[in-house]
Amino acid sequence: MNKIFPLLFLFLSSFAFASAEEIPNKTLIKVAVPPGAQQPFWGGSSKLPSGLLHDIATLFAKHSNVDVKYITVESISDLKQAITDGRVDLTMIYRSQYQKNNSKFEYYPLFRETVVGWINPKDKGLQNDQLHWACSKNSSFCKILEHLNWNVIETKSNKYTRKLVIENKANASIGTYNAFIYYFKNNKAINEEIYFNQLLGTVTAEIITNKENQELNKKVKSFIDYLDNTGKKEISAIKNKYNVDSEIYKKWYDTNKEITITYGLSTNAFPYSFLNHNTGTHEGAIHDIFKKLSDLTPLNFEYVHYDDLSDQYLIRNNIIDVIPMVKRLKTAPLGYTYTSNFINIKFTYVKNLNASNSKITGILDRFGYHNNLSGDNIKVYSSLESILPDLKNGEIKYAYINQQLLEELYSNGIFTNFEIISKKNGSDLDIKVPMLLKANNENIRELLDEAFNMIPQSEMNNILSRYNKFEYQIGYQKKSC
């Protein structure tokens, strides 16, 4: 089972290795790093080291009472030869289940990582065995591709692998899942292709040493024993930091089938969900967010809408799994549960220039988040249709309206006679809200919580900003003619 999603590809290095030299009081471990940055595995600078490799090396150095120094090495073949002839003492590599042990080395497993694929968008219509997959020679990724009988193009190192794909000399490649998640969190993805396929499986991150180096083997064995016992929290923290996950295919697939989550939301809820009359399709930020989640994970999302049925009816009768935007009560309704708070609801505070004597503040609250607000000069509206007449005839002096909706009203000439006011002069009604689902869907709730944590807040803001019609400043006003 596989699934394609867009991303600018970022390859992980397949190795790191070390050499030991005796210096007064401490052993110096020379840790080999790949050429250039290959985040999240290696940050690219030996003077300002960062990345998964650096954190593992630092933890090893702390436990073993040694010092480390980083040395750049070009290829996997070079590092293995260096271990064999004694120029270096240990290495950390990714190994697949299809690679046999070499009698010259000792292997010490650290953790496993899920392998996913990356496909050039122009080639996404081809079958896997029609594609030419680039991989670093002698790497675990090459071994996986060879086992699958897919067409392999070998390169000297990972940096050349990436270059082949970008230059259209190869169609695709594979790498670890956490590399792609890192990129989504730290960069803007462009229209390139990657996909999940359970056949790719996992690779194991292992420390490898020369069997004859007994003193170093003692240190490594002690380190591994530490990680398996009192150091469990430390290695777990590192794995969580870099999204190292070996259970992607087991966790995100249901009995070897992709998990599809159905959802529903009112059509008339711009910018979150609305009917595009030109195309006849339902669009909006909620649909864009679920598309983003689908890009990041093997989850599929399906929108369900019936004109004559409410979202509450749909979820109550198991027609949909999730209502994406609801008000969080102190206690969830009986038989239901909430996700964490994910969706931002932002209001713009405006002065209605149509009003003269009114002191009323109107709040357009289409989802019931602020229907508990009350007062002589506060009026809460549940729909755009109900607030518009009062705005136009001047019965409301101030109003809180969703930012993108206000811009839509202005750009269409529906409501233009207003002045934008700083929220410092009013109340900040912005809120972040959860999703609602059946309490017996605990697995889906956990998957949604984990999936949403993969999207940085900046990306969530970017999705909403797609529906901005114009940029404005506090004090902006536009009188209708």
Main attributes of the structure:
481 residues, alpha+beta, D-Maltodextrin-Binding Protein, domain 2, eleven-stranded mixed beta sheet, six-stranded mixed beta sheet, 14 helices, disordered C terminus
What does this molecule look like?
It contains 14 helices and 28 strands. The chain is of the alpha+beta class. The strands form seven sheets. Strands 1, 2, 3, 4, 5, 6, 7, 8, 9, 10 and 11 form an eleven-stranded mixed sheet that branches. It has a six-stranded mixed sheet with strand order 23-22-24-21-25-28.
Q: Helix count?
A: 14
* SS-based class: alpha+beta
- Oligomeric status: single chain
Tally of distinct domains: 3
Work out the helicity level. 25-40%
Low-confidence stretches: 5-18, 470-481
Give the strand tally.
28
Task: Report, as a whole number of angstroms, the end-to-end distance.
Answer: 59 Å
Please sum up the structure shown.
With about 475 residues, the protein is α+β, with helices and mostly antiparallel strands. The protein contains 14 helices and 28 strands.
Structural topology:
Elements: E1 2-6, E2 15-22, E3 27-33, H1 52-64, E4 66-72, H2 76-84, E5 90-95, E6 105-119, E7 132-136, H3 140-147, E8 151-155, H4 158-166, E9 172-176, H5 177-186, E10 193-197, E11 202-210, H6 214-228, H7 232-241, H8 248-252, E12 253-254, E13 257-258, E14 260-263, E15 274-276, E16 281-283, H9 285-296, E17 300-303, H10 311-316, E18 322-323, E19 336-338, E20 343-345, E21 347-352, E22 361-364, E23 378-381, H11 384-392, E24 398-402, H12 403-411, E25 418-420, E26 431-433, E27 436-438, H13 442-452, H14 457-465, E28 477-478
Parallel strand pairs: 3-4, 7-8, 7-9, 14-17, 22-23, 22-24
Antiparallel strand pairs: 1-10, 2-3, 2-5, 5-11, 6-9, 6-10, 6-11, 12-13, 15-16, 18-27, 19-27, 20-26, 21-24, 21-25, 25-28
Helix pairs in contact: 1-7
